[in-house]
Design brief:
alpha+beta; 2 helices; 24% strand; elongated
Length: 68
């Protein structure tokens, strides 16, 4: 039996970016979810991580797109 796989997106702090979604069907869906999540921080202009402030234009490289 083939195991289903998906893509999980973890924030720089290691938690999933959306509470209702553990993973996404494919990388395209994961990237769209990431963009929606990133837009939540647009007004403040950065993501506040446990490790400090991360500019939004650099946020994707601090996140993990993990196949599960």
């Amino acid at each position: 039996m083939k195991k289903k796989t998906g893509v999980q997106v973890l924030s720089p702090d290691g938690i999933t970016i959306e509470f209702g979604s553990f993973c996404y069907k494919n990388m395209e869906d994961a990237k769209k979810a990431f963009e929606r999540w990133k837009n939540r921080f647009e007004q403040q202009g950065y993501y506040s991580s446990n490790k400090g402030r991360i500019p939004l234009d650099e946020l994707e490289k601090y996140c993990e797109f993990k196949t599960v």
